[in-house]
Amino acid sequence: MALFSSLPPAPIAPKKPVTDTHHGITRTDDYAWLRADNWQAMFKDPSILDPEIRTHLEAENRYQKAAMADTEALQKQLFAEMRGRIKEDDSSIPVKDGPFAYGTSFVTGGEHPRFFRTPREGGAETLLLDGDKEAAGKAYFQLGGLDHSSDHSLGIWGYDDKGSEFYTLRVRDLETGEDLADRIENTGGGGVFAPDGKSFFYTVLDDNHRPSRIYHHLIGTPQSEDRLVYEEEDAGFFMGVGGSSLDDFIFIDIHDHETSEYWLIPTSDLTAAPQLVAERETGIEYDMTEGGDVFYILTNADGAKDFKIVETPVTAPGRENWRDVVPHRPGTLILGHEAYARHLVWLARENGLPQIRVRDRKSGDEHAIAFAEEAYSLSLHGAAEYDTDVIRFSYSSMTTPSQLFEYDMATRERRLLKTQEVPSGHKIDDYVTRRVFAPAWDGESVPVTLLYRKDTPLDGSAPCLLYGYGAYGMTIPAGFNTSCLSLVDRGFIYAIAHIRGGKDKGFAWYENGKMAKKTNSFKDFIASADHLVAQGFTAYDRIIAEGGSAGGMLMGAVANMAPEKFAGIIAAVPFVDVLTTMLDDTLPLTPPEWPEWGNPIESEEFYKIIASYSPYDNVEAKPYPVILAIAGLTDPRVTYWEPAKWVAKLREKSTSGAPVLLKTNMDAGHGGASGRFQRLEEIAFEYAFALKMAGRMV
């Protein structure tokens, strides 16, 4: 290709065939050697990576750097633009909690947040934790947040300095700013204080990166003396620990992608054995919040596919005592809920758009907070205190910067607290946001959110970045994104395909994009591209597709199914070796993922279903477009060898001669670089690739 005419020869991974047989079916994997045998240890110490693998990944990095050399000036320009849209010394509006108000801020040039507090009604800030100071000298650093004790004297904070998501917890004296001697290793990233502030609960990850145990730590004692509170023996479940809003209970939350279970520890007796709320039942989900003498539970029990809210006595929370408070309404998906002394609040989605609903707990009166734009994003922030009538929520759209509101649930008055600043300027009227609907193969309609400049020609000549995810029920919000303006201002249409596998159109939208119906996600994305072309927004040779993680699987699948419909594909940390990963129950996420994709170890049917779409297994001799894959060496979610193997096989099979590029971040994991500006550099790199493929580098 002319765009890559001066490229050196691409790295060729040697073939070292390995075979496996399941259900009488034998596969051969020529590139299995790219998986490090010592991957568990390597996640904690990347320096021990097998030299042959490191040499190959570094060769791939040199190749992609050569391929993108002519975009380096553009990358710097894009980065400068994106940085210019960020208020560098930004600060949150502090949240009131007891005698203080807590917030976060950034300093000019800073990569990481600072945590501070002020007196409740305002005053001088006290710096509690400086992320930039803690990150100094580290190639990678990710803060896990800061949680303060009920008496506001201590804080628990966590950090990951490898990108492998094994967090270390420290305890900080919030008066002196000094850390105590306590150091808790291999945690999931946070802890929850007991009300007296003398101890806390936390989750430990095992060697396979699974949250398998919850411990109780007495401050001032070594981790080796911590008391085991709960151990989850089923590797297919995630687990977390949290506190109730009134500090009456410690919640142990156990779940996979379709089943939930809660256990309670009363804070009046921290040594008490955890009490089961409702025994796990496959397909039944529930989520709890405390409301004084009752719990409010969000659940899909009793056929409530789009969920309902029930209440149950704190003294007898079992399912036999659940009573409907907010009944199930088909088509109105309840996403989350919160309870306060006088009000119950929940976030719902109806007709693809979010709304916040508020109910007076005494009178039963109910009202909604909604907006009128064609597509928008709404987030419920709630409040830190239980006895309050005032909560917060935020609103944005593809054209409207984020706005933070304070809302009085009793008077129904809203007050704008803050509007996201765009220092380099942003004229809302210069842009258009729309939601169109693409007809799918089976008669469904796929929502597609669009953003473009008013002066962008809609005659098929505009390039388009089409983004998709479509898994785990996650909905990609139609919110404000300062980074994508760098594409839109260069004539791009920025599009989000709200495909099946998410919950954009209710829970059924998720169900119809998972397990045996997973291919609907891929077909919906292709249908979205077809519709944008048919409606004159763009053309196939101008569409750059993008997705990450499970969205990277989407990219691999559509590359196999319809390579001619994309000028280029960006696959970030792509989950492309699906069958191999789902057959390996030692990998961190495999057992918990079976309810999403199916278990090919036990089921021949699901083996064949996954084998039919797994991107790596379906690479074949055909003209693939230019593909950019991005990996993180210490990524525990999508291991680096998945994109590395995929790229090697694509390069072997593709008949188009189009380059296949692999960029591996040797100092990061699933989320890429951790600093806010470092992340912008990665986005600038991806967008420079899109602009190069669209011929819009100037």
From TrEMBL:
This is Peptidase S9. Residues 484-695 form the Peptidase S9 prolyl oligopeptidase catalytic domain. Coiled coil: none annotated. The keyword Disulfide bond does not apply. The keyword Protease applies. InterPro entries: AB_hydrolase_fold, Pept_S9A_N, Peptidase_S9_cat, Peptidase_S9A, Serine_Peptidase_S9A. Belongs to the peptidase S9A family. Gene3D superfamilies: alpha/beta hydrolase, Prolyl oligopeptidase, N-terminal domain. Residues 1-23 are annotated as: Disordered. It comes from the Bacteria. GO terms for molecular function: serine-type endopeptidase activity. Keywords: Hydrolase, Protease, Serine protease. One of its GO terms (biological process) is proteolysis. Residues 15-419 form the Peptidase S9A N-terminal domain. SUPFAM superfamilies: alpha/beta-Hydrolases, Peptidase/esterase 'gauge' domain.
